[in-house]
Each structure stands twice: as C-alpha cells, then as structure tokens.
Amino acid sequence: AEATIVEPPSLGDLVNTLAGARVVVAADTGPAHLAAATGVPTVTLYGPKDPTVLAPLGPRTRTVRAGVRCSPCSLRSCPDPICMSELSVDHVEREVLDLLNGSGA
User: Are 48 and 28 spatial neighbours (Cβ–Cβ below 8 Å)?
Assistant: First the structure.
C-alpha cells in the first residue's frame, strides 16, 4: 500500500481530497474530523489529549494511542513526549487494516 501526503490549497479542496480517500490517518486535528464527517474510514492518532472526549464522530472511525501512564494530560509542552514516540507504526497499521476490513468498526 502507498501513502500520499497532500496539502490542498483551500478548505474546499481539503474536503474534496478527504472525501475521495480510501482511508485517512491523521493526528487529532481538523482534517481528521472532516474526514470522519464525510464517512471516510479515519484513524486518528492521540498523544496527550483524551480521545474519549475529542475523537471524531462517524461510523468508520478508530482512535490510536500508546496508552502510557501520563496520558491524557493537559501539558502544553512536554520534555519527554512518550505518548507520541511510543505510538508504533505497527499499531497504526493494524488499526487501519482492521478498519478497512470491517473488523469491529
């Protein structure tokens, strides 16, 4: 499988790009919420924030986090952001494949 990184020039272009995606993997940002709202399978990566409060809504969404002891937290800056550095590519890939295969979604 091949990933494509896109930088659409406008919000409308972003929505159109997301709506045409097979799957969207994004940090907890606006594009993740837009993708989920359009019904695109969406995997959202979480570090310090709480996905039970902030996760995108939609029928085909997943959240991924490392589950470290200090997360969720409210720090604006962290000297050792293990909540993100411990998030493995393998874990994200498993969630993407499960979501695309319809497992538990």
Answer: no
pLDDT, greater one: 97 or 103: 97
62 within 8 A of 104, measured Cβ to Cβ:
no
Nearest to 5 by CA among 19, 26, 20: 26
pTM (predicted TM-score): 0.84
Q: How far apart are CA 7 and CA 55, in angstroms?
A: 22
d(CA 80, CA 85): 9
Helix (H) or strand (E) holding 61: strand 61-65
Closest to 42 in 3D by CA, of 28, 25, 59: 25
